[in-house]
Amino acid sequence: MPVKLSSAGGGSVTLDTPSTASNYTVTLPAANATLADTSSTQTLTNKTLTAAGSNTVEATSGPTSSQLAGNRNKIINGAMMIDQRNAGASVTPVGGDYTLDRWQCFGNQPSKYTVQQNAGSIIPPAGFAKYFGVTSTSAYTVLSGDYFLIRQTIEGLNCFDLAWGTISATTVTLSFWVRSSLTGTFGGSVQNAGQTRSYPFTYVISSANTWTYITVTIPGETTGTWLTTNGAGILLNIGLGVGSTYSGAAGSWSSNVYLSATGATSVVGTNGATFYITGVQLEKGATATPFENRLYGAELALCQRYCVNYNSANASNTYFTYGYGSNITTTRQDYAPNFPVQMRVTPSLTTTGTASNYAIYQATTGTISCSAVPYIAAGSFVSCQIISTTAGSLTAGQCTSLISNSNNTSYLLFTAEL
């Protein structure tokens, strides 16, 4: 990224940019002197000019122009803005539950921590409005085979350019803001989908209850199978307490299943301990760049490739309309929602599990309660066929709507997670 210095008289000096990590010093002449003519020049690439003393300018390495381009962050919802499932409510995750969008929680022992968007209501780091909050609910002694962690799985289509598993594998840099009531060395790991390649890493929180900026550089892995399809490409694990079976030496690739680094601090080991994280970014290159803030609508659309929640909690009344369909028989209505974006795969549907939470509204007769929860009969990446049934009273061929039945708690949750 060249820098051009121009004078009022039209003359200029252009400082251009190479991709080396070296430092260069350019010594300026004494006052009122001029630079001597030279038959050769040295180009400074990827350098930042800073004052280095009297009459000198020092050029130091900076991020490349490609690193500062858009769409460089492989993490979705790294600023923790989107929480379609829980809308900021506290939850106690069961193993593998998704909480804030794209973030999955694991624990082989139940009820050891809670998760909430902006838990504790503390001020996020500058430039952020939300964070992922973990609170330990017991002083649990982690055994060798135990594991507690949060994870984001990156789709293979979003990380194929890293060329992992080949001789062209590129280095990546992980960066994030973290705050904990505990201090010490914490850990995590990066893995492939089959968990046959693992790279444990550590980072240090030296001041309790203080936001700390962390960067971790991870060398590209040249071996192993790394999917570049719509399957799981890269697993990013943030440890909350991992036993020795799943912990390994930090700083090198291994064929073992390592979820964190040996000796890392256990958050679940202290009752009431807190662990907050935001601004998570994983990008190509050995230099961390400023967090890539995407527009809220763009971030939501990225999340909706994996999760779409039609939720009556967002309605202004207790008869939220999910969509319009047609009565096929006197007991069956068909409704075909079009998803806001193309989903990763044909989604599955989750409901409250209570049929009476849902109803069909028919203009001639009013609200008719469902006799079974709505379900997907057929579907694709972009739409699906939802069937809802009643005990009767529908008029075949009539246009009707699927609604929440006098409540703000029902939902249709479509998921296509990795």
What features would you describe in this structure?
- The protein is an all-beta fold and about 425 residues long.
- About 0% of the residues lie in helices and about 40% in strands.
- It contains one helix and 28 strands.
- The strands form seven sheets. The protein has a seven-stranded antiparallel β-sheet with strand order 24-23-27-20-21-26-25, with no helix packed on it. A six-stranded antiparallel β-sheet has the order 6-7-10-15-12-13, with no helix packed on it.
- A hairpin with a 5-residue loop joins strand 6 and strand 7.
- The chain is globular.
- About 35% of the residues are buried.
Overall average pLDDT: 90
Please give the largest β-sheet. 7 strands, antiparallel
Count of discrete alpha- or pi-helical segments spanning 4 or more residues:
1
Report the order of strands and helices.
EEEEEEEEEEEEEEEEEEHEEEEEEEEEE
Low-confidence stretches: 33-52, 54-60
Number of strands: 28
Topology of this protein?
Layout: E1 3-6, E2 12-15, E3 24-27, E4 47-51, E5 56-61, E6 97-98, E7 104-107, E8 113-117, E9 132-136, E10 147-155, E11 172-180, E12 184-191, E13 198-205, E14 212-218, E15 232-242, E16 247-248, E17 260-261, E18 274-284, H1 296-304, E19 307-311, E20 321-327, E21 332-335, E22 348-350, E23 358-362, E24 366-369, E25 372-379, E26 384-389, E27 399-404, E28 411-415
Parallel strand pairs: 16-17
Antiparallel strand pairs: 1-2, 3-5, 4-5, 6-7, 7-10, 8-9, 9-18, 10-15, 11-14, 11-18, 12-13, 12-15, 19-28, 20-21, 20-27, 21-26, 22-28, 23-24, 23-27, 25-26
